[in-house]
Automatic annotation (TrEMBL), chain A:
SUPFAM superfamilies: ABC transporter transmembrane region, P-loop containing nucleoside triphosphate hydrolases. This is ABC transporter. Its main location: membrane. It is found in: Cell membrane. The lineage of its organism: Bacteria, Bacillati, Actinomycetota, Actinomycetes, Micromonosporales. GO terms for cellular component: plasma membrane.
Automatic annotation (TrEMBL), chain B:
This is Multidrug ABC transporter ATP-binding protein. Residues 341-565 form the ABC transporter domain. It comes from Mangrovihabitans endophyticus. It is found in: Cell membrane. Keywords: ATP-binding, Cell inner membrane, Cell membrane, Membrane, Nucleotide-binding, Transmembrane, Transmembrane helix, Transport.
Length: 560, 569
């Protein structure tokens, strides 16, 4: 990831924003320039109008009037050009920042690996990745419109200064006063807005929950209770919305209206000054026009400040995620050649070139053994005498593969889904598909699309695609949980036979309760309370171990 | 999967109008307050003109100037107050309308017939209930009040200009014509562009969601590079889609902004000529120019939001589309005579597909245990859904006590047949509410005890906060069946996903629930068949064999072959 994003400084939200800004210097300079130039253009328009009136109209000179009218059009065109350049550069800054942060988040998520779900919920990462990144992007509003507004404010101050220093002082003091007046409202709005969004989120998940259970509701009843509860909570959200309306309506009206009040005060002072002969009537009109323009920078400054506040909050969430420590991938090399995996806690061993099976009444126990052997979580397991938790990730993972029965399936063409990290080799993919008896998936077309989590496949198809993927990876040691729990008897028999064939010469450990698979295994470990109680072939255990017989025959449907 | 309908224009207009009508007084109040704010806004420039007149009059009456300036101040303050109350009223009205819309959506979803519920893509319904409802709510609450205020302001400004000089007003309106052209151009393209921008956002969300939810798999299969590449591809698409909308705005915004100066220049020229001919005063011309400048604000507001209004109209059309889902409209049949279920020549096809059941004949004897077995895709689950009255055959009949199962109203149906699948939805509610029965607490507790749910102590426990595990969810589902008390239960692979020890508990619970009921068990594993009174073997949409386990083994047909494969011999 170094090439795209560099190493982000995530010590804190503000540091992070500064780090992002340092990566956009040119765009930020461009946005600042166009923001200021556009704002300056706004202040020129009243000047042109007053000139057109004074020199063209009042002087009865049609030619001059036409010239100034042309200037108005010209300034309109220039202002439109500057405005869009400002908008373009701002959009690009937002885009660059947001997508750079999204990139950082995805990269960090892949680095965190299995540690991720323990530290943070998947939904939260998505919220950060598509919501907060844009809020961080919008925090940069200050660099374009923000800078431009300050610039416009300064220009107006200078123009008014030339007419009357006293009025300029009032203008200079007025703008910060207006902004200070609305800031507390802004904070209140953020607090109520936050509460509103939380309730809105709760209500939405309530709705999704009810919709997801529609089937149960239409089968068993209880619709009215759900409708009533939703109505109650919906009313609660509405009332919270009323509270937002109190704050938001004041903020909107004051941000736009206070400059008007301020304008009235300046006009009053200017009018008295004009009446006393301090300034001319033309100057009075000019002061009015200039001050009126201040509405725009005041509005933009308030907005920039609000976006900055929101941006810092979002950046805090982003840095909290990016700051999660990733597991250290380094370590020693694994055994040079195929070696035995051993879990001392349960006593399970997986020697090379063996198809072993794990049978237990509690699936969770079998999972724990497989997790330890494949180093998901704390482990004392060894591999050819080397502790697996000492082995480097890029040596362990490709050689020892843990294939969960609920493993994620990512979207893509069937061939890519099965090929996993490798490029798809057509004959090898077909072999894996055959071994997993998955020929019916996508009607045999390897280009068929698989949706995320295999949503467009049946439960049995999903399971066989997972198996095909694990077989294609062809690891030295394959650890699999319940690879056939969702397939029919006929298919299960085929898989059992082909699995043994596909894994010939390699080590495999399957946690299963299927008699067909158990019967194929070279050795079956019968686990009681998480420890090996007996090992041997399926038939021997059936004969010698009453507990094992109970476990397996229940599944087989024979009288116990 | 059929797709939910989308409402047509006329239907959307009717629905929008009924929302306004439902809140008539607030709507009128909003109009009134915004109009007052607009009038107050007109006062400032007009009073400034009077001040100029007073100053140029040279009388130097400070008192009069003070009065007029105080008027300017009063106008500004009045505008703030009126605008504030106008927006507040509009926001509250929008909030009420949003509540009505989301509540209406749920009501309609709840009213959908079972067959439609089964067929609707769950994602589509959820998206309409969340994203679309939010889009419309935001529009109603935040955007429409602003736009509304803008429209009122524009109306008053235009009226003011027209009052001063109709001819110049006309010139100004023609000058603004360019905005119409640019806006039409933009809106024709904007919708698709912003829709694909939204789709690109969802794609990034999908990638991040898939990578984080599947983090363990990513690590196990060393998919880091692949996932990063997939994420970056989605980001690249996102960037491209946003640059496309930016390209649209790059033409739209400058077009609009330049258009603002056209009427000003035109009024200057035409008004200048009229002034030279003595047809208008300088003050009047100045006022018109000021009003034209004031038009920029509200026009900007409207144009910035117009695309989003268009988008929320589309979202509203999707929400209103639920109204077009056909109502159940079941006939009211006589109650079933007895508990006998009969299938006669039933054929069934999924919408637009070929027949998947080809003339099924089956009589389920009250009190018997019937196992439906066969390979995946043989039509077992489809037959189960016909038996449960969720779907109806397009030919032939499925009846209980002589009445078509599919015609029974839900309240009657659930006393007859209930289908239990692997899907045990647990609502994020209390345990009591999850049992979905009005029965008194004592009976609820008894039902829970019968299914062996010893974990369930407190009926008020929130299952949203402490979700039950697979086995507990299963027990919950069985307790629901017990409380619904049907005479026939259809089990579709109900315990297949549980691990052996849990399955054993679940089967005990099942045994308790199934006592004295007719049971139809669908299974691809054969242990269920062994224990059943009769086994029906299905293949390619037909029942190819039916009889007791031992008889079928003796007959040495398809069932015997299946049984042998299962035993791996």
């Amino acid at each position: 990831m170094a090439g795209v994003a560099g190493v982000a400084d995530v010590r804190g939200p503000v540091v992070f924003l500064r780090w992002l800004a340092a990566r956009q210097k040119r765009l930020i300079a461009t946005a600042g320039f166009f923001g200021s130039a556009w704002m300056a253009g706004l202040t020129v328009m009243p000047h042109l109008l007053s000139q057109a009136i004074d020199r063209g109209l009042a002087a009865h000179r049609p030619g001059t009037l036409a010239w100034w009218a042309g200037a108005v059009l010209g300034l309109g065109a220039a202002s439109a050009g500057l405005g869009i350049m400002r908008h373009r550069s701002m959009t690009k800054i937002r885009l660059q920042v947001a997508l750079r942060v999204a990139d950082l988040i995805i990269a960090h998520a892949t680095r965190l690996g299995a540690a991720l779900p323990r530290s943070v919920a998947a939904g939260e990462v998505v919220t950060i990745g598509i919501g907060d990144v844009w809020r961080v992007g919008r925090a940069f509003m200050a660099v374009g419109p923000g800078v431009g507004s300050l610039c416009g404010y300064a220009v107006v101050a200078v123009l008014v200064w030339r007419i009357s220093p006293m009025l300029a002082a009032v203008v200079l003091a007025g703008v910060p006063t207006v902004i200070l007046a609305v800031t507390p409202l802004l904070r209140r709005l953020q607090a109520t807005g936050q509460r509103y969004r939380e309730r809105q989120g709760d209500l939405a998940s309530r709705l999704v929950d009810t919709l997801a259970g529609l089937r149960v509701l239409s089968g068993l009843g209880g619709k009215q209770a759900h409708a009533d509860r939703f109505r109650r909570e919906s009313a609660g959200l509405r009332d919270e919305g009323y509270r937002v309306a109190e704050a938001t309506s004041w903020l909107g009206a004051l941000t736009r209206g206070l400059p008007g009040v301020f304008l009235a005060v300046v006009t009053w002072l200017a009018a008295r000054s004009a009446a006393a002969g301090g300034i001319t009537v033309g100057e009075l009109v000019a002061v009015y026009a200039y001050t009126a323009i201040l509405t725009v920078p005041v509005f933009l400054l308030v907005e920039s400040g609000a976006e900055m506040m929101r941006g810092v909050v979002a950046a805090r969430r982003v840095t909290a995620f990016l700051g999660l420590p990733a597991p250290d991938p380094s370590g020693v090399s694994g055994p040079p050649a195929a070696a035995t995996l051993h879990d001392p806690e349960s006593g399970v061993s997986v020697p090379p070139r063996t198809l072993a099976a794990l049978a237990t009444a509690r699936t969770a126990d079998a999972r724990a053994v497989l997790d330890r052997l494949s180093r998901f979580g704390a482990t004392d397991a060894t591999w050819g005498g080397i502790r697996v938790d000492a082995v480097a990730a890029d040596d362990l993972r490709p050689r020892v593969l843990m294939a969960d029965d609920d493993a994620a399936v990512f979207a893509g063409a069937l061939r890519e889904v099965i090929a996993g990290r490798a490029d798809a080799d057509e004959p090898a993919v077909r072999r894996a598909v055959w071994a997993a008896a998955a020929g019916d998936v996508g009607a045999g077309d390897l280009s068929a699309g698989v949706e995320r989590d295999g949503r467009n496949l049946s439960g049995g198809q999903r399971q066989r695609v997972r198996l095909a993927r694990a077989l294609y990876a062809d690891p030295e040691v394959l650890l699999a949980t319940e690879p056939t729990s969702a397939v029919d008897a006929h298919t299960e028999a085929a898989i059992a036979q082909r699995l043994a064939q596909a894994r010939a010469g390699r080590a495999t450990l399957v946690a299963t309760s299927s008699p067909v698979l158990l019967d194929r295994a070279d050795v079956v470990h019968y686990l009681v309370d998480g420890r090996v109680a007996a090992s041997g072939t399926h038939r021997r255990l059936l004969a010698d171990e009453p507990g094992y017989r109970d476990l397996v025959t229940r599944t087989a449907g024979e009288p116990a | 999967m059929s797709v939910l309908p989308v409402a047509g224009r006329a239907q959307v207009r009717r629905a929008a109008w009924s929302l306004v009508r439902a809140d008539r007084r607030s709507a009128a109040g909003t109009i009134g307050l915004n109009a007052l704010a607009a009038v107050a806004g007109l006062g400032g420039p007009w009073l400034l003109g009077r001040i100029i007149d007073t100053v140029t009059g040279g009388t130097g009456e400070t008192g009069r100037i003070d009065l007029l300036a105080a008027g300017v101040l009063a106008c500004a303050a009045a505008q703030v107050l009126f605008a504030r109350h106008g927006v507040r009223l509009g926001h509250r009205m929008g909030e009420r309308a949003a509540a009505r819309i989301r509540e209406g959506l749920l009501d309609r979803a709840l009213a959908m017939p079972a067959a439609v519920v089964e067929r609707v893509p769950p994602g589509d319904l959820a998206a309409r209930g969340t994203t679309d409802v939010d889009t419309v709510a935001t529009a109603l609450r935040d955007i429409l009040p602003e736009i509304f205020m803008g429209v009122v302001q524009i109306a008053f400004l235009v009226a003011a200009v027209m009052l001063i000089d109709p001819l110049l007003g006309l010139v100004a309106l023609l000058g603004f014509g360019g905005i119409g052209v640019v806006t039409r151009w933009y809106l024709r393209r904007a919708r698709d562009a912003y829709l694909s921008e939204g789709a690109a956002d969802s794609a990034v969300a999908e990638e991040i969601g898939a990578t984080t939810a599947g983090a363990r798999t990513v690590e196990a299969l060393c998919l880091q590079e692949r996932r990063l590449a997939a994420g970056r591809a989605a980001i690249a698409v996102n960037r491209a889609s946003r640059l496309r909308t930016l390209a649209l705005r790059t033409r739209f915004f400058p077009g609009v902004e330049f258009s603002y100066s056209v009427p000003v220049a035109a009024v200057l020229l035409v008004g200048g000529m009229r002034y030279f001919h003595g047809e208008i005063t300088l003050g009047a011309l100045g006022a018109i120019l000021l009003y034209l400048r004031q038009l920029v604000g509200p026009l900007d507001t409207i144009l910035i939001w117009i695309e989003q209004v268009q988008r929320s109209a589309a979202a509203f059309a999707r929400i209103e589309g639920l109204a077009a889902v056909p109502a159940p409209g079941r006939p009211c049949p006589a109650p079933p005579r007895d508990d006998r279920i009969e299938v006669r020549g039933a054929r069934y096809a999924y919408p637009g597909g070929p027949d998947v059941l080809h003339g099924i004949d089956l009589t389920v004897r009250p009190g018997e245990r019937l196992a439906l077995v066969g390979l995946s895709g043989a039509g077992k689950s489809t037959l189960g859904r016909l038996l449960a009255g969720i779907d109806r055959p397009h030919a032939g009949t499925v009846t209980v006590g002589g009445v078509p199962v599919g015609d029974l109203p839900p309240e009657t149906l659930r006393r007859q047949v209930v289908l239990v699948t692997q899907e045990h939805h647990v609502f994020r509610e209390t345990l009591r509410e999850n049992l979905m029965s009005p029965a008194p607490d004592g009976e609820l507790r008894k039902a829970l005890a019968t299914v062996g749910a010893d974990w369930a102590g407190d009926l008020d426990a929130d299952l949203g906060e402490h979700p039950p595990d697979g086995g507990q969810a299963q027990q919950l589902a069985l307790a629901r069946v017990l409380l619904a008390d049907p005479h026939t239960v259809i089990l579709d692979e109900a315990t297949a996903l549980l691990d052996p020890s849990t399955a054993r508990t679940a089967e005990r619970a099942l045994g308790a629930v199934l006592t004295d009921r007719t049971v139809i068990a669908i299974a691809h594993r054969l242990q269920t068949a062994h224990d059943a009174d009769r086994v029906a073997v299905m293949d390619a949409g037909r029942i190819v064999e039916i009889g007791a386990h031992d008889d079928l083994l003796r007959r040495d047909g398809p069932y015997a072959a299946l049984w042998r494969t299962w035993h791996g011999s």
